[in-house]
Amino acid sequence: MIAISDKELEYFLSHCLEKRFKKNEILSKPLITPNEIFFIQKGMIRVLITDEEGVEHTIHFAQENQFIADYSAFMLKRPSVYSLQTLEDTFVIVMPKSIIEWGYQELQEGDKLGRLIAEYYFIYQDTPIKNMFALTPKERYDSITEVFPNIHNRVPQHMIASYWGITPVHLSRLKNQRK
Predict the structure, then answer these.
(1) Closest CA to 59 of 121, 128, 117
(2) Contact, 44 vs 154, CB < 8 A?
């Protein structure tokens, strides 16, 4: 994403943590102000929100080579509304807010990195919203593997249905139409 010297990279990474999470572990919970961003090296994470009746709604998925956090809460220093849950054994780099702020100040292209991450986050949030209203359920089903390759083998179908705002039965019908 940016040009970075070996010395800068070494310092940055020395302040990050490598962490493994087992399937179904929670990385971040609602009502807690997030203080880190995760970079996924291996695995898949679901972003979800639980409504007042206790029903979980999948907001997004993140997989290898993607950043994930409740970025708005992270930036505004407010409690999160989302949970982040692993969907398989997952290996992440945990980047604390302090090292990210150091990067903005000290990396030669730190501001550029921050801008690129913010742009990525905007696209990450905007695309599913746009697709929800611009594409038919079948078109959304057909396009999901472009964004998340092999998702149907990695994620339970009811979570994919929740992500698209359809019932698992409707998702099953869409899958059968493709055969």
Answers:
(1) 128
(2) yes
